[in-house]
Amino acid sequence: FVMPAVSMTSLSSRGGARGSLGARGSFSHVRRVRVSASSSPASGASRSRVMMAAVEAPLGEDVSAEKSFALGPMTSQADRPEKRLQVEVVPNLAENTTAIRCLDWDRDRFDIEFALAEGTTYNSYLIQTAEATCLVDTSHEKFRDAYWAALDPLLNGKPITHLVVSHTEPDHSGLVKDVVDKFPEVKVYGTKVCLTFLKDLVSEGQTFDGVTVKGGEADNVDLGDGHTLEFVAAPNLHWPDTMFTLDRKTGIAYTCDAFGQHFCTEDPYDTNVDELLDHYRFYYDCLMRPNSRSVLTALRKTKEWEYDTIAVGHGPILRKSMTMWKDYYATWSEAALEAAAGRAAVIYEHGYGYAERLSQIFAKGANKAGIETEFIDLTAVDDQEVIEALHGASGVVIFSPSSAVAETKLSTAFAASSSKRKIFVAESCGGDDEPVDSILRPYVESGCDCPVDPLRIKTAEPTPLDYQKYEEAGTDFAQAMTKKVAATARKDAMNAGIAKSLGRIHSGLYVVAVEAEGGVRTAMIASWVTQASFEPLGITVAVAKDRAVESYMQVGDGFVLNILEEGKADATMKHFLKRYAPGVDRFEGIDYDSTPCGPVLGNALAHLQCCVRSRLDTGDHWVIYAEVIEGAVSNPQGRTASHRRVVATYY
Questions:
Q1: Helix (H) or strand (E) holding 134
Q2: For 315-361, how does the pLDDT look when each residue is reduced to its tens digit (9 = 90+)?
Q3: Which residues contact 399 (CB under 8 A, 6 or more apart)?
Q4: Global pTM?
Q5: Whole-angstrom Cα distance, residue 113 to residue 286?
Q6: Which of 449, 454, 457, 465 has the alpha carbon at shortest distance from 584?
Q7: Kind and range of the H or E element at 348?
């Protein structure tokens, strides 16, 4: 598997060359992956392979430059004692710069909607000069005691004078309130939207000295000793208030969520590329791909920055292969925009209910089907910006805002929409949602097409089944936008002779079945399946990127390959080939048994329980390589159902 051509500069020492955004080289990184099952760590031991020796030193104790990092004691989450937490201090990240990494070893889900295979980290950074002490981001509030136990000795009695808030998502700003309470004179730097949101995070009645950052030389902050901070607003990566920060002296770019990954390990750096790449791509697909245009805008705005380290908010700090990681973001985002068959404007109200999470998961589903999404936060834009964002969009998606915001903003969105656009409306689960029918009615009356029924949430907060509905609704909406174009493009792309020849490749018939947390069950008919290895025993399955089941076939996930029997497959095929509404249980009325990997059909000839080990991007499909864990044949005399085609322009 040859990765896209990228520039690959080794930056293992501080003397390494600094990269500039947008650089391209000709190095092709050939990658072979075999993921082995993780074992749970004992206290102080890594869940993943540890590439650097841990230093068991008390936090706050002087650690020499030769030592890599210091681990604090293992603690547990107050409400879930089985969830282990640990704080790691990485001194000498650069001159006068320390990293504080909060290790959430056992977090297995992020914002409910996607699973984590290797936990996550929440990273913050401390810059200390003779004149100032600057904290870049804080951490999740569940680390409060351990975080301050690590930070207080580093401060050594000195106050925090500057606090940079990259964005206000709770996993990075959960302790901002503590900082403002402890150091009321601290200057807090953030975008205009960020500082507005922060007012709701600090103690009631508490004020703070907020400094609005717009970007540009006038906003630069001199911390002393040559440390000058430069800022760039990077909205929608992945919150509307995000900004990047550069320390010109040390060549460190602080990017919060951007370039991160959910991967918890003691090694603070990107030492092992092969181990990290699947996690990096999964994180990008879930959080950044829906905002691919914003990714490219941020890369363009920072192209003159010189740096050799990306200090991320989640996962390993990027230094060893920094340029490669950065180039992947550019390559993937450019490819996403080039492949997009249309654009949908996603309108929501930041900070209201679950609008961010629901809109992001909807966009993830839409992106799978080849639609670009552009987010419009009604709290951060004026009427003219709404009109400009809607210009050229072939679809409009509205997550119901609060009634007060709806009165002033939604009329502008409707006025800027044409009758030829497709429309989708869903609840945000905020308690005061503008009724979806009231939002939808004027669009339908004006002639807009509503290809997917509005979604409503019946519980106080979204469940995993709700997230499944919203993602599948995004895919269905995008497919409705691209249906005619996609069918024509597929037919035109293939030479008739090749199509007939390729169609002579025969295959079996299978049902790929998954069962996830919260009662989520889904499945698909598959035919592009083959054995791929003897040791370990493995198979590959080709899964179209817009299939609902694809989201539950990430590295580490389990699934069952049900092998259908000749002469008995028709009813099963008919059932699973039906077009289901978003979130509908595909197994309702079907005889099956649950296993750790997923449902086994009662009428299957045989089944294989599998665990995903790696994924290969092949254009419009993922080729999933999985290790076979268990298997059984229910009818030894039966034959596998076969599938024959005439041409290869359809399944």
A1: strand 133-136
A2: 999 998 888 999 999 999 998 888 778 899 999 998 899 998 899 89
A3: 346, 347, 348, 349, 355, 358, 359, 362, 425, 426, 427, 428
A4: 0.70
A5: 9
A6: 465
A7: strand 343-348
